[in-house]
Specification:
By secondary structure, the protein is mainly alpha-helical. It has 8 helices and no strands. The radius of gyration is 28 Å and the shape is flat. Pfam families: Calponin (PF00402), CH (PF00307). Belongs to the calponin family. This is Transgelin.
Length: 200
């Protein structure tokens, strides 16, 4: 990690494409949500991808965020009294956040890898994870979400329908249009061009 030099050639192209996916406007919305959700004591990052990464890097802000989405009696992530300074402790804190986010309902494909944040490999993936977490919190509507509900899209929810026995019987008598009909259809009189000519 410490001896990693600059990327060249194809690696540099790939990294620049990943960096272009980072959204500065989304960063502002996510910072506003995190501050509204956790309180002003989490502070604010410097603007830009690097400032956002440094703010979240030790995992404390992320842990406070996921804990704030649970009721006061059940906090999934243990937060140390002093922020961790050792690299493996910081990465462990991020991993605890990722586990708690998955338990909350964020699907695995939306969850970033620890190095995406810690080494700033893919900060757009970090944004995607936070967006998925916010969308779930808004959708659950359990009173633990703080902030503007319009910041995130609600996920689609199941809309169960109940039918009475008489409604089900009535439905069996109806032939839906998707079934089609062959009333009056026949191939009588149809021709497909001239017959094949065999010349010897």
């Amino acid at each position: 990690m410490a001896n990693k030099g600059p990327a060249y050639g194809m690696s540099r192209d790939v990294q620049s494409k990943i960096e272009k996916k980072y959204d500065d406007e989304l960063e502002e919305r996510l910072v506003e949500w995190i501050v509204a959700q956790c309180g002003a004591d989490v502070g604010r990052p410097e603007r830009g991808r690097l400032g956002f990464q440094v703010w979240l890097k030790n995992g404390i802000v992320l842990s406070k965020l996921v804990n704030s989405l649970y009721p006061s009696g059940s906090k999934p992530v243990k937060i140390p009294d002093t922020p961790p300074t050792m690299v493996f402790k910081q990465m462990e804190q991020i991993a605890q956040f990722l586990k708690a986010a998955e338990d909350y309902g964020v699907v695995k494909t939306d969850i970033f890898q620890t190095v995406d944040l810690f080494e700033a490999k893919d900060m757009a993936a970090v944004q995607r994870t936070l967006m998925a977490l916010g969308s779930l919190a808004v959708t659950k509507n359990d009173g633990n979400y703080h902030g503007d509900p319009n910041w995130f899209m609600k996920k689609a929810q199941e809309h169960k329908r109940e039918f009475t026995e008489s409604q089900l019987k009535e439905g069996k008598n109806i032939i839906g249009l998707q079934m089609g009909t062959n009333k009056g259809a026949s191939q009588a009189g149809m021709s497909y061009g001239r017959p094949r000519q065999i010349i010897s």
